[in-house]
TrEMBL record:
Keywords: Acyltransferase, Cytoplasm, Transferase. Residues 21-91 form the N-end aminoacyl transferase N-terminal domain. It is found in: Cytoplasm. Belongs to the R-transferase family. Bpt subfamily. It comes from Halomonas lysinitropha. PANTHER family: ARGININE-TRNA-PROTEIN TRANSFERASE 1 (PTHR21367), ARGINYL-TRNA--PROTEIN TRANSFERASE 1 (PTHR21367:SF1). This is Aspartate/glutamate leucyltransferase.
Length: 245
């Protein structure tokens, strides 16, 4: 998105609320989601502005939680210039030095889908992404927009991970990462390495932040986000430093 293009005011956009539904992260709770009207065609800069307000992308939809009785979902981002990898993260970077990385448009690829389907069947057979399908994958991770990208990770030419991310004016937004679930690949911690790779890419491109989506204190599977320090959180309309737990 060009920063010189005229911007469409966010206040002129239309938004819709979903009906309350079961929360995907906290058992026994209901969630409500605020969506940008799917019929809208936001102009340059709108996605960037909405990301600063805590919106995320899934497929062609921009959304954020909007729950009356709960504010557990907290938007977090890494200020990459201040990030310093931990000892464990430095080891991971060294351990994965034999991988080759390549950025591609977020278009459907049969090789990507095969890895995704295997990952979901192996790691998330009890989740709402199971069973995987071509349509589900296309709806979730493909988008024919210049800002939507896929970062491939290959080991001796073999695809071992794919990280979907968006290129914003003020950073990179991590969407989703899937990887080879084989036991022998565990030591590579490819999900963590994908985030470290996006941090390096943001630094190389002079972008200030990597957005990690939502962090929920009570959700154990989101604990990994706290390993990236320092971390900033969205408090209302302002980003502030998050105190490490």
């Amino acid at each position: 998105m060009s920063s010189n293009a005229p911007r469409q005011p966010v206040r002129d956009l239309r938004f819709f609320l979903t009906v309350p539904h079961a929360c995907s992260y906290l058992e026994g709770r209901e969630a409500t989601t605020l969506f940008l009207d799917p019929q809208e065609s936001p102009g340059p800069g709108v996605y960037d502005a909405l990301a600063l307000l805590g919106f995320r992308r899934s497929g062609r939809h921009l959304y954020r939680p909007h729950c009356d009785a709960c504010n557990a979902c907290i938007s977090v981002r890494i200020p990459v210039a201040e990030f310093s990898p931990s000892r464990t993260q430095r080891k991971l970077i060294h351990r994965n030095a034999d991988l080759t990385l390549h950025v591609r448009p977020a278009l459907f690829d049969a090789e990507h889908y095969a890895l995704y389907a295997h990952y979901v069947r192996t790691r998330h057979a009890d989740g709402d992404m199971y069973p995987p399908s071509h349509e589900q994958y296309r709806t979730f991770l493909t988008l024919d927009q210049a800002y939507a990208r896929l970062l491939e990770f290959r080991l001796d030419g073999r695809l071992v991970a794919v990280s979907a991310f968006d290129q914003l004016e003020h950073g990179l937004s991590a969407i989703y990462t899937f990887f080879d679930p084989a036991p022998g690949m565990d030591r590579r911690s490819l999900g963590t390495f994908a985030v470290l790779s996006l941090i390096q890419r943001a630094l190389d491109e002079g972008l200030p932040h990597v957005y990690l989506g939502y962090w929920i204190r009570e959700c154990r599977k989101m604990n990994y986000k706290q390993s990236f320090q320092p971390l900033e959180m969205l408090d209302g309309r302002h980003w502030r430093r998050m105190i490490a737990l």
